[in-house]
Specification:
binds uridine-5'-diphosphate; 2 domains; seven-stranded mixed sheet; alpha/beta; binds magnesium ion; Spore Coat Polysaccharide Biosynthesis Protein SpsA, Chain A; 52% helix
Length: 320
């Protein structure tokens, strides 16, 4: 079986030699029994340190180490600047050879343990699934607040979208056709994890424990996480438009309350409405009209946005 590994790397100079050394050992002792041809694709996402030179050195070390065991190729790509992990993943899967039966996506910092790769391959072969998701059995050493925010986001998101993300990582095994379909999706502002769920196909799971990062720091700032979350809401759910609809429902309820109040004054108290009553009613009516036309515009934008994503209308899995 031909296997590919895709690894995005950003400012990993202190890590990359260690990662490749572990990988060489793993290929030699374990993976060589599962795969007869292997391509490691590492994408340097515009690192500001010397990740690129480390990758070149790590490549030579790895090739030396595995020589004579299994057919290994190492392909290194370097971005002109930091385009982000999503872009690095895309470049990585676009570089996968069409002959690779399976492709494993994993982080360069060993937080996605190499030992999980073989169980993923076994699951892939045993179940015939196109995607094997490595699911976090715990969220590593994340702080309480981080964990709470992430869990609330995923709970809310799972309820309001068609994709399942809870405890998912970008750590996945993809079949050849899943790689091809993901690589061909033309959309910008990608969210790899969600797209893997969106394309459908049979999914299987293996559990893994997130290892601790040994050197360096996580490149995900709070801001980049919020950005990813908002991309997710726009691209995979209708929540932003639904919120505008809820605003209008709220204003309508206020209006109904006001009319009931007027009726009470006119019919039960038998006194006339004063100017302030008329004024508040007109203001409310104005707000209703503005929100209503806003919603209409958003509905147009939503349709334009979906057209711009240009996702396929369907994906055929089998023909007979
Ligand atoms: N990464 C990348 N580009 C970026 C940020 C991160 O390619 O702009 C890579 C990084 O080198 C690592 C993976 O994405 O291989 C996950 O990043 P990190 O470990 O910082 O994130 P965390 O483990 O905290 O999710
Ligand atoms: Mg990490």
């Amino acid at each position: 079986m031909e296997l590919s590994l895709v690894m995005p790397c950003f400012n990993e100079s202190r890590q990359i030699l260690t990662t490749f050394a572990h990988l060489a050992g793993y290929i030699k002792n374990v993976l060589s029994r599962k795969a007869d041809k292997l391509t490691v694709i590492a994408v340097d996402d515009g690192s500001k340190d010397d990740t690129w030179t480390c990758l070149a050195e790590a490549k030579q070390n790895l090739l030396k180490e595995v020589a004579g065991t299994v057919n290994v190729r190492v392909k290194l790509l370097r971005f002109s600047r930091n385009f982000g992990k999503e872009a690095a993943l895309l470049a990585g899967i676009r570089a996968v050879s069409p002959t690779a039966a399976a492709t494993v996506i994993l982080d360069a910092d060993l937080q996605h343990p190499l030992e999980v790769i073989v169980p993923m391959i076994d699951k892939f072969l045993a179940t015939g699934a196109d995607i094997v998701d490595a699911v976090k059995s715990d969220r590593g050493k994340e702080s309480g607040l981080n964990r709470w925010l992430a869990n609330s986001f995923y709970d809310f998101f799972d309820k309001h979208s068609r994709v399942n993300l809870k405890n998912m990582a970008d750590f996945k095994l993809l079949s050849a056709r899943a790689v091809r379909i993901l690589a061909d999706l033309p959309e910008h502002e990608r969210f790899f994890r969600a797209l893997c769920s969106w394309i459908g196909f049979k999914h299987a799971e293996v559990q893994f424990e997130v290892a601790e990062r040994e050197v360096g720091v996580s490149k995900w700032s709070f801001r980049s996480k919020v950005n990813l979350a908002s991309d997710a809401f726009y691209a995979f759910s209708d929540v932003p438009v639904f919120l505008q609809f809820l605003e209008i429902v709220f204003v309508i309820l206020l209006g109904v309350g006001q009319v009931a109040y007027f009726a009470f004054i006119l019919l039960a108290q038998k006194r006339p409405l004063d100017r302030l009553d008329y004024l508040t009613f007109i203001v409310l009516l104005g707000v209703f009209l503005i929100l209503g036309s806003n919603l209409l515009k958003s509905l147009y934008l939503q349709r334009l946005y979906k057209a711009a994503l240009n996702r396929p209308q369907y994906i055929i899995m089998q023909e007979d």
